[in-house]
Design a protein that fits this description.
The chain is 64% helix and 5% strand. The protein has 86 residues and is mostly helical. It has one domain: Orthogonal Bundle (Recoverin, domain 1). Helix 1 crosses helix 2. The radius of gyration is 13 Å and the shape is globular. The N and C termini lie far apart (30 Å). Bound molecules: calcium ion. Calcium ion (CA) binds next to strand 2.
Length: 86
């Protein structure tokens, strides 16, 4: 398996772990996203509700109130670009 495929598998595994907690299993609710951020990005500290709402709105591109895998992947890609920029 290529490194890229391994990375995608890992991204999907993290997504599935949180997306399966409540509601539809293939989308993240605001609560699930908050938990993912808190646990997987523990360095970023705790977000206020207003910050979380703003962040969720950024991820939810189509505005349907949940974050799909596609929306999550484009977020992770954007985050990777930002964090590797010199
Ligand atoms: Ca959405």
């Amino acid at each position: 398996m290529s490194q890229l495929m391994q990375a995608m598998d890992l991204l999907k595994a993290v997504f599935d772990k949180y997306a399966g907690k409540e509601g539809a299993k293939d989308t993240l609710t605001k609560k699930e996203l908050a938990e993912l951020l808190r646990i997987e990005f523990s360095g970023s500290g705790s977000q206020s509700k207003a910050e979380m709402d703003k962040f969720f709105g950024m991820l939810d591109n189509d505005g349907d109130g949940v974050v799909s895998f596609e929306e999550y992947v484009s977020f992770v890609a954007a985050l990777t670009v930002i964090s590797t920029e010199k």
